[in-house]
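Blinded run. Sample ID left blank on purpose so nobody reads anything into the name before looking at the predicted structure. Input follows.
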Amino acid sequence: MLEESSFDVQSYIFIPQDFLGLYNFSPAQAAPLLSSYDCTPAMSGTTSKALDAAKSSSQQAKNTLKTMSEETSNTTSSFLHHPYVRTALPFINGGLAGMTATTVIQPIDMIKVRLQLAGEGAKNSARPSPLAVTRDIIAQGKVADLYTGLSAGLLRQAVYTTARLGFFDTFMTALKVRAETNGSQIGFKERAAAGLTAGGLAAMVGNPADLALIRMQSDGLKPLAQRANYTSVIDALSRITKAEGITALWAGAYPTVVRAMALNFGQLAFFSEAKNQLKSQTQLSAQTQTMTASAIAGFFASFFSLPFDFVKTRLQKQQKAPDGSLPYKGMADCFRKVAKDEGILRFYRGFGTYYVRIAPHA
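Blinded prediction complete.
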């Protein structure tokens, strides 16, 4: 076996160490002897071509990867900046945010509905607490019953919240463009108008899912023999349509629209205004400003919308008696009967629970 060879960088000649040691030749002395075999040019040329080919292949691979990366980045950027995609993004982002919040607060919404339906028609009925309602729901079934109607809640958010935030963002964008053109700023009135309009339009679209949610959540209050035992929002919508007609899906639509307008007036308008005031009047961090503005907006949203939410729940829960009559003829009739039979403060029952439910959406 030959040991490691010496390498003459200048002539590219490989000389075995055994050969040099045997004849006591140094590399410089051996070079003239080996040059007669003309191996240097051949080896030098072959090695040079191989190195050049390797460098060329490596550079081509790098260029190809760079081109592919740039094309992928350009494709993604072009897709996200497409006019239709840019228009749809506010709706998609709003829907996903709403569905995430619904998954977290669904048990709170279930308790809120049960509080609103407790003691219906009785002025001096016992006032249940959120904790008592929670214990009662778990005692009658299981912890998972707190998530009754989750499928309807998710559908409602996918439809209602997607449209609500999407419309509001679209309106605000148009207002900003007009304000920049006129050299002015967007005021509280413009924000309020955008919030009211966005909420009203979205409520009409999302009313069927909202009604299915109330029916599923209130079903447990009925005697066992009268319960519908809906398995999902699709089951609820199809059975309600077959039994009561498709127009029944828009029962309570009027208070739903008014509630949505009041809710958005508090949520979106007060959130924007509070954040602007905090930004200009305080030195709070951006995150603290957002959380504080959300808390403020959630309070006003709850205050303005809870009475309408209460009436909406009562109207969407009611079903025709055997003689075809209904407990309430409409929103005004429900307000009148509840105020007379249960008292004005009944409209604000469960305010704390409702606030906790609303705040994450603000």
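Unblinding after everyone has recorded impressions. Residues 9 and 44 are 10 Å apart (CA to CA).
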